[in-house]
Amino acid sequence: MATNAATESTETKAYKVRWLVLAVAIANGFQRSFCQSCFGQINNVLVKILHVEPWQIDWLVTVRSVSFVLLSIPVALIANRIGFRNCMLAMNALQCSTFSLLVVGVRVKGGYYLMLVSQALMSGDGMIGFGNLPLLAGLWFPSNEVASAVSIQLVARGAGEAIGSVSTPLIVNIRQANDVIIFRLTMLFVPFLVLSVILFLVTYTFISESPPLPPSVAQMKKKNANANKERLQFIESLKQNCTSTLKDLLLNKSFNVFAVVAAFIAPLLRSITILLSSMLHREFPSASGLNLVSGNLLLIAWILYTVAALLTGLIITKCKKYRAIAVVGAFTECVTGILIFTGMWTKLKFLIYAGVILLGIGAGITDSSFFELLVEITYPKPLFLVTSLYMVLIGSARFIYPVVDRALLKYGAPASTAPHAILMSIAFILLVSVPMHFKRLEADTSSESTPLIDE
Question: 194 vs 219, which has greater pLDDT?
């Protein structure tokens, strides 16, 4: 009997249902990202029907950044406490609420504030989803599939951003009557509401807390150690040691360099997604169809982001050249910042267009490689806490970028984009010149890539 128990305790298996779990996460990530990019390209249209100012439309996206800064760590604590399945249910429930408010918000007087609340709720979905990204991969997938499972979820983000960027300027424009705009936007959000309900029901019916048998040896060890007890101990440890962990990270030279680089680079594509249409209208006031031009450019950029993020994950899995790949992404975004600024300054549209498209590639590389780099340089700190602190950092930067860019836009798009070129150049130089210490890579003695969940 003891022998059989020992045999059972070391058994691993990858279940087919893991693909359903991943599909639900992909659909959830797609919808979340769609809501981040669908407003900026029709800023002037939303100003018209909601009777608000352009900067208030920006807040339909930047409210997420504020929520990330204020709530990331509390949400991380709650998410760890309630477990994987309840996190998935909460994510889909938040999306149901979000799209319900959007459907109502575009139709009623004062609906802007309902839409603002909807985006705050979606930020909660995003906070849980960001933490669940590595958790899902490690919990349900074998070690050789973990990096790909993470990258595929980033692909969903890129696809959502791409479709969101182009769909709204395709169906509405400033010349249409308000009733037409309202009807079309309502019909745009209703299918997403229906899908959110379906995802919630699928999660409730088919997805469990964890597979009966773990997919990898690393997960088998965690399961044998009593996962529920471990989670409660982790929560207590997190409460007690949050300050000391933060202090250790602030004394970590590699983390400090990474934090500055990420804060400079990571928000650029988001800020451009929010403000590109407004920038083009500011510099080319007599041109027509600029909302659609902006949407098409960002469609291409986010498609390239998707491809770049997926390929980056696959390349990192094979070669583990974390820093070298991050440097390539940082250099690409540096060139991007210079191109967009030069194009706005000289009013050469082809430079702007080239810069926006290239930005998608650079952001896909950096977003994918930065996450792996974060895990490497902070090992063996608790992954969920480190991820939460990273979310606070990036959330702060993503809030500051569009607010400052909108304020500078009154002096012209060159004034708004000049800081991008400067900050991208500084980030690239820092990433190239300052040494980094890869602790996880040094600690990993196996030939197999260490799953992210096993941190």
Answer: 194
